[in-house]
Write a structure and sequence with these properties.
Blueprint lengths: L1 E4 L14 H11 L4 E5 H32 L14 H17 L4 E3 L6 H10 L11 H15 L8 E4 L3 H4 E2 L2 E2 L1 H4 L5 E4 L2 H7 L1 H19 L5 H26 L19 E21 L2 E19 L10 E19 L5 E11 L1
Parallel strand pairs: 1-2, 1-4, 2-3, 4-7
Antiparallel strand pairs: 5-6, 8-9, 9-10, 10-11
Protein name: DUF4935 domain-containing protein
InterPro entries: DUF4935
Pfam families: PIN_12 (PF16289)
């Protein structure tokens, strides 16, 4: 899922860390659920608007400072302490976007100088995003940067969303303007991130997945083998025992017990009957979130107790067919795959590669 942003979407939240939907968008990008694109023009415009707004507020404070100074005593300390300049704040915003780009949370698209002739032509003909009232070179650069980028990747780029509240220049009746659709039909339009989150089914599912991912990270199953072992022991011990019991019966002839030293195995068909199992350890834990399902995989080490017997060659009706000779135990290992919900209830369990040592 590809998100293309206009600068006006984050003018009031330039760091994208206060508006809940902007924060969610970055969080989805951090988990690689979405890919965010902004053009170089958008980035510069966000920074420029931030500087302009800060300068305006600083001037208002300076005016108030002058008024306050007039009514204070001579040499009275002023209430304002100018510790950070506008320039220093602007530098922090620039560094913030560099970090977002370095961490792959946003992708900044440079504009191609070759689009200049096309922009001039559209300006003359007043073709969108140009209008009779103004010449929007800025909007034209943003749009053609996004349109050309998606067109060059139309076979594999997937669903694209263009989020801008500049509805007059980019849209008609709630959709991308027909003039602009001549450049690209790849985009679905939303005017802000809140509308995007509330009206896109795929995003709603991603939000659920994101919540689940955050829960999984908080539980830290991959580094908590004892927790996983306890869950298996409390909820799945009987199921694991049954699987191992079946394995023992199926492969009795391949399992070497201590009674092979005492008897002649060439003449005896041993029968193994599991009696109990002790789960000892889990390891190599991997956790994956698939939509709304948490999948945990790993290996399980256990110890299996079993009775050892052999087929009574003189078996008669009144005798036991299997003659018991004693008991033994063996370490056993297996791979497991389980699904779990946020109540820590195991829903499904699969065991593979069962192997007795």
């Amino acid at each position: 899922m590809n998100i293309f942003l206009d600068s006006n979407v984050v003018f009031t939240d330039p760091f994208m860390n206060k508006n809940i939907y902007n924060k969610l968008l970055l969080e989805l990008a951090e988990k690689d659920f979405v890919t965010i694109y902004i053009s170089e023009v958008v980035k510069k415009e966000i920074i420029n608007n931030f500087e302009k707004e800060l300068s305006k507020y600083y001037k208002e404070i300076e005016k108030s400072e002058v008024k306050i100074k007039k009514i204070l005593r001579e040499n009275e300390r002023l209430p304002f302490d100018w510790k950070v300049t506008v320039g220093e704040y602007v530098l922090k915003l620039k560094e913030h976007y560099e970090e977002l780009e370095d961490y792959g949370l946003i992708n900044v698209l440079d504009f191609d100088n070759n689009i200049l002739p096309e922009l001039v032509e559209r300006s003359i003909k007043r073709k969108k995003p140009f209008t009779d009232k103004k010449q929007e070179f800025r909007d034209g650069i943003i749009w053609l940067t996004y349109a050309n980028f998606t067109k060059a990747r139309e076979r594999f780029i997937g669903t694209c969303y263009f989020i801008t509240n500049n509805t007059s220049d980019f849209t008609l009746n709630g959709e991308i303007h027909p003039d602009l659709q001549e450049d690209s039909t790849a985009f679905i339009f939303y005017k802000n991130t809140q509308e995007f989150f509330q009206n896109t089914d795929q995003v709603k599912q991603l939000q659920k997945t994101l919540n689940l991912v955050n829960w999984v990270e908080g539980e830290d199953f991959e580094n908590s083998p004892q927790v996983v072992l306890d869950l298996l022991e409390e909820q799945c011990c009987d199921e694991i025992f049954e699987e191992v019991w079946d394995y023992l019966h199926m492969y009795s002839d391949r399992i070497f017990t201590k009674y092979h030293y005492e008897m002649k195995p060439d003449y005896v068909d041993f029968e193994l009957d599991a009696t109990s199992i002790e789960l000892i350890d889990v390891g190599d834990i991997n956790v994956e979130v698939v939509l709304d399902t948490v999948v945990i995989t790993g290996f399980l080490d256990a110890n299996i107790e079993f009775n050892v017997g052999f087929l009574n060659p003189t078996w008669a009706i009144e005798e036991d067919e299997i003659q018991n000779v004693g008991s033994d135990s063996k370490p056993i290992s297996m791979d497991f795959t389980l699904t779990i919900n946020q109540d820590k209830k195991i829903n499904d369990l699969d065991l593979d590669n069962i192997d007795l040592g």
